Amino acid sequence: MTGARPALDRESAIATYLKYADRMPQLAKEDLPGQTQVTHNILEIADQFDVIIFDAFGVLNSGVHAIAGALSAVKALRERDIALAVVTNDASNSPEAIIARHRNRGFDFTVDSLVSSAKYIVPMMSRHSHVTRWGVMAPQHWPITSLPGEAGFLGDDQNFYDTVDGFILIDSDEWNDERQHLLETSLARKPRPILVGNPDICAPMGDFLSVEAGYFAHRAADVCGVIPQCVGKPYSEVFEDILQRHPTVDRSRILMVGDTLHTDVLGGLAVGIQTLLVTRGGFLDGYNDLTGLYHRSGIHPHFIAPAIGNGLE
Predict the structure, then answer these.
(1) How far apart, in whole angstroms, are the C-alpha atoms of residue 100 and residue 136?
(2) Count of Cβ atoms closer than 10 Å to residue 34 Cβ
(3) What 3-state DSSP class applies to 229?
(4) What is the per-residue pLDDT across 198-247, written as a single tens digit (0 to 9) for each?
(5) 226 partner at 20 to 30 Å CA-CA among 52, 130, 197, 210?
(6) 133 — alpha (psi -120 to 50), left (phi > 0) or beta?
(7) pTM of the model
């Protein structure tokens, strides 16, 4: 694990998603598929779709490595002329940097095929015109000057937390329990807006789950009663961005592929597209009670497969 973030095991992550489910997009009964169809890999169902949207971490890659079979699956989808896109909650890296990493893994995605939650941080800020000074959770290399108004990095100075008008939580790589305590203490004294550029609770990084900004945002909200405002999966902006690029494609012909119920599948269901949950190499790797998880969460996908390239390794 990088930085000083606390570890988060999978059961704790699931419990956290369930705890804060009422702060996420809500589904009606008709938004859910009648049943979940088991498929061997994505190629078995690919002909049903004209557009396929991938989550990255846990679907295409786990940490720095491509998941076995993913490269072959993406290549085969290209050969079928299916439009491919990637949505990411990685708000701390530029689209160019994200795509460069995917290309280093062997994928042929372009910047035009990527939609990042970072694209919607400034529009989210614009809804708070009364806020002129922001405190930002992000690594020191993050381009903070791209934000409007006055913004500074949240560090170890309690006075700075107390004097800003709002908070933006983007990346927790340099975050720790001490800084979280400063944030919570300040918000308890004076509630202010909490904006979130990466609403993930955690992300699969190979052999551990990295604790992400969404986790800390919800903890901060608990002490002050201010519900976080988020962009990125499972919220609608990143999905609608791709849907607007394919206005003539029926939503039943668009597939969202992810490794978590509360980000990827929930987000896809909420905008009315088909969903595929993968269980190997990501958040659910080794998990053996999916039926129970469906029941606890009230969410289930249209399709489930071990991996997009299962059997293509």
Answers:
(1) 26
(2) 7
(3) strand
(4) 999 998 776 678 899 999 999 999 999 999 999 999 999 999 999 999 99
(5) 210
(6) beta
(7) 0.94
